[in-house]
Amino acid sequence: MTLASNPAIRRHEIWQAQPVGQFRDTANPSLPDGATEPPTPLSKFHAHNRLSSSGTPATWMTTPSSPTNYVEDDENMFRFNYLPSSTGQ
To answer: Where does the record place the region Disordered (predicted)?
Structure first.
């Protein structure tokens, strides 16, 4: 067995300093296998089950990216000057 093939000996300098599961955790039989929390039902994420900030059901809207709704700003016309004007206006 080589050093690289033995995870108990091989050091991972970066990963050992991170708050993630370590290879040594797999050797601990008291740790349960599986998810850390039960899965969330998809129904909790569907828009028709959620309310918007106004209290009405949220709806999904897709804006078409056809030429009438899409513009490229080649001349930089959409840039705004947010600095106060020097003329006091």
So the answer is: 1-72
